[in-house]
Each structure stands twice: as structure tokens, then as C-alpha cells.
Amino acid sequence: MLEGRAHMKAIVIVIGVILIVIAAIYFLVPADSLPTFFPGHETGLMRIRTKHGMLAGALGIVLLALGWWMGRK
Fold first, then answer.
1. In a domain, 8, yes or no
2. Which domain holds residue 40?
3. CA quadruple 21, 35, 38, 12: dihedral positive or negative?
């Protein structure tokens, strides 16, 4: 049982880190330079997608906190 919990903690932490990296991409790259599979990609739009970045960053922080909380027990 404890082994499955460790795997779940690792998965949650990895997804949290990935979401924080995605948030950084949203904040640093204009909308027309985003990868086409990212929500918010729009050809010809030179502004950044702030709301997408804030949402991805917040979800990443929540998942990292959840992973930390899961490791306490």
C-alpha cells in the first residue's frame, strides 16, 4: 500500500513541475510563438497569455503542495 502512495506522490510532483514550466512558457513567449498544441496559440498575436500562465502556475503550485502533503504521512 505504501509503495502505491509513493508512486502517486511522484506522479503528482512531476505533473506540478511540468505545469510550472508551461506557466513560464506562457509568460515568456508571445501567443504566435507558442507551440500549436498549446491553448492560446494565435497566429499574429504578439502579446503573452497571462491568464493561461497564471492558471498553469497556480495548478502547478497546488499539485506540488499536494505532493508535499502526501509525503508527510
1. no
2. 20-71
3. negative
